[in-house]
Amino acid sequence: MKSVILAAVNIIGMKKSLLFSLVLLLSLTVSAQTNTSNRTTSPLPQPKREFRGAWIQCVNGQFQGLGTDRMQAELTRHLDALKQARCNVVIFQVRPEADALYASSLEPWSRFLTGQQGTPPSPYWDPLAWMITECHRRGMELHAWINPFRAKTKGTTALATSHPYWKDKSKFISYDDLLLFDPGRPENRDYIAHVCGDIVRRYDVDGLHIDDYFYPYPVAGKTFDDERTYQLYGLSTQTKADWRRDNVNRFIHQLHDTLRAAKPWVKFGVSPFGIYHNAKAGDNIPGSATAGLQNYDDLYADVIHWVKQGWVDYIVPQLYWQIGHNTADYSELLQWWARYSSGRPIIIGQDVERTMQYADPQNPSVNQMDAKLRQQRQTLGVDGSCLWYSKLIADNYNDYARRLELTYHRYPALQPQMSWITDETPGKVRRIGTETIAEGTFLYWDVPAYTSWKDKPVKYVVYRFASKSRQNLADPSAIVGITKYPFCKIADAGKKAPGYYVVTALNRIQNEGLPAGKRVK
Fold first, then answer.
1. Contact 354, 329 (CB under 8 A)
2. 303, 309 in Cβ contact below 8 A?
3. pLDDT tens digits, residue range 32-52?
């Protein structure tokens, strides 16, 4: 059978000698492991599976008014830095205030994109579609991040005529210069779920992510006036607090079902505030040894209930405090969330700036990066981290990004397993071969057959071992590359790449198929 590599070249009308240009174009899809002499020895075990995410937010105005070319250039800088640090998930904010950083017939273009809500970008582009393409080219997942209930931030002074507020003002509540969808109204929950379903159906996102704004953060002297809605929809047996929690529960359940119906492989993630509930004597609510704002009591977000019910696929508690914080200690909260994971991955929201500014209590001569990541990796139930925020990685704030690359993210990592979505795996790849041309040596293979998305191969992992008897697929240092194409470069021109090579296939949620191997002499 003719080489897959040469077939790909023939399809696009290229000569064999031009394959290297094609490979350069496609190389962004590969998370390659290259051994370089300036790498330091990792002080921590290197997991094969780990969520390595970063948030890219728009609500801080960092992209507002940049224009198409400059914003794409800045996003490219972020993505290249995240790839260099071997991050594998980008969480991109696309709906901060019932608006859109994507083409929507339901809500107006965001002012955080163009400077004026409702004004499309010029030259025209679709940031979400562009980001999906760019993340996938770099081998990273893209999770679309929305704020579900916020309809206006404090800094927004004018709403576009197409904003949903103008269609029925009674559905919204003003609070401390914010405007929010009233979570107690069923039609609002229906509408937001519909918006999310629209995103997932029209875009090839890998996940849908919501942040920590449910009912608003309480402000002293301010009242969130939902009494009328409570009288209309609340049960006589419910306190207002219980009714509010039930409203958010209903929304989370509905959103889960909406996503599963649209595309069952799309992961649903939530990044709640870092404290669920402060432990109090005599109450039966699970609580941590903390004394701060609470999800359960103040935001009416019963996150632990959502996890128990299986309504969310991963949780990213925002543990932005330092180790040793007086009222919200990082170490206490990490252990607490791990205890209540209910088998779902707990991903630690890491504040890069605070981590690098505070000294390790056990070793005051260094910052807290090593101590935090060591605790993260040594805690059962914790499956990775998400970095706040991407610009600090792009800027290599206090050397954080470089240390990720050389030490903590030394090798590529697959995503944490989510067998509740599906436990099916792709089949074995077939007929592995090699092709040596002027530009180097390539491994290629035939893709396995499939019957549905559950066993459809979408990526491949290529490993190299000294011999067949020494293969260990649990060792991430053996990974040569992770690619969505059925070939992978294994040696440069004029270099040899002897060893026993193994190829496995991954499906949409990165379940790994059985290995197929070939010795290369």
1. no
2. no
3. 443 333 334 446 789 999 999
Residue 69 burial (10 A CB sphere; 0-12, 13-18, 19+): exposed
218 Cβ contact partners less than 8 Å away, ≥ 6 residues apart: 224, 293, 298
Which residues are within 8 A (CB) of 368 and not within 5 positions of it... i.e. 6 or more apart? 322, 323, 330, 355, 356, 358, 359, 360
Strand partners, 429: none
State the angle between helix axes of 330-339 and 369-378 in degrees (0 to 180), rounded to the nearest 10: 20
**Helices 186-202 and 240-262, packing angle to 10 deg:** 30
φ/ψ of 290, rounded to 5, equals -135, 175
Cβ atoms of residues 234 and 243 within 8 Å: yes
Q: How far is Cα 515 from Cα 432, in angstroms, rounded to an integer?
A: 11
Q: Rounded to 5 degrees, what are φ and ψ at 258?
A: -65, -45
Beta-bridged to residue 441, according to DSSP, are 436, 491
Q: Which residues contact 68 (CB under 8 A, 6 or more apart)?
A: 121, 122, 123, 124, 125
Which candidate, 312, 314, 278, 319, places its Cα nearest to that of 295?
278
CA 260 to chain centre: 18
Residue 259, H or E segment: helix 240-262
Per residue in 450-478, pLDDT (tens digit) is: 999 999 999 999 999 999 989 999 999 99
Partners of 440 in the β-ladder:
437, 492
**Residue 429 is which amino acid?**
V
CB contact set of 160 (below 8 Å; sequence gap of 6+): 99, 108, 109, 117, 118
Phi (first) and psi of residue 220, to 5 degrees: -55, 130
Q: Give strand ranges (E) for 288-357.
A: 314-315, 346-351
